[in-house]
Amino acid sequence: MANTINPAPSPPATAWRLPALEDVVLLCGFAALAIPTLFRLAKLSWSTEAGAHGPIVFATAIWLLWRESDCLRSGARQRLWPGALLLLVALPLYGVGRITSILMIESLSLYLVLLTLMFLRYGGTVLKRLWFPFVYLLFLITPPENWLFVATRPLKMALSEISVDLLSAAGLSVGNSGSMIQVDGYQLLVATACSGLNSLIGIGAISLFYVYLRHGSEPRYASVLTLLLLPIALLTNLFRIMGLVLATHWFGTGVVEGFVHDAAGLGTFVLALALLFGIDAALFPLFRRFGWVRG
Fold first, then answer.
1. What is the pTM for the complete model shown?
2. Contact 58/140 with Cβ under 8 angstroms?
3. What is the pLDDT of residues 73-103, one digit of tens each?
4. In the Cβ-directed half-sphere of 3, how many Cα atoms lie within 13 Å?
């Protein structure tokens, strides 16, 4: 009689378990704080040029956390001290942000609450594993507009000077005086021409997301690409300024306040990503050829 060989039993599939009651309570409590803040971010920040990247960052950050969620199984609850002390600071700070309607304080304190709860529930090892998603979430916290104005003003003035010099060398009748660019009798405010610098945060966020996904396992090469992000963003904004000055030269000042202005903002974003992809495609084979990266 032929021997019947029974196949080895396959290991049982891991059963899906309902979350513990304390996890549900913790999640509901945090959601009660987070949902109103997200609505305020959507209304006051995500509808502006400086914060237009918000929905993309929020969605991709949630995806990153879900992608790395396996590490949560190795987490362990921590002792309340010193996490409880951080909550005693973050929660009143959140209340101050809500009462005063200062969105930056409100969103930053909510971020601290999230970090503290994650540490108390899963521990520092899990937070180290999830370092990039939590750093990436910081891009949701848009600084106040007056901060951005002060921080980007020197860059705006420098880029306007360079664009005027380049266009003058090309034969265009253009000059600048302080915060005003003159072209063929028209005047263009530097603030209008350089408003694309407000998108630096969005360009940086999406570019870092690409670098992390594409080259997260190669920290040295990822650092090189990260260092190139600011020059890429400045170069694309220089093209934006020159494009708007040329549009003013051809069609008048009214055009830069309508569709062309919005298209220039989107074009700046797309061009920055295209340059990043192109530089990556050119640099990575060189790094691999010299043995500086694996692959």
1. 0.82
2. yes
3. 887 877 777 778 888 999 999 999 999 999 9
4. 3
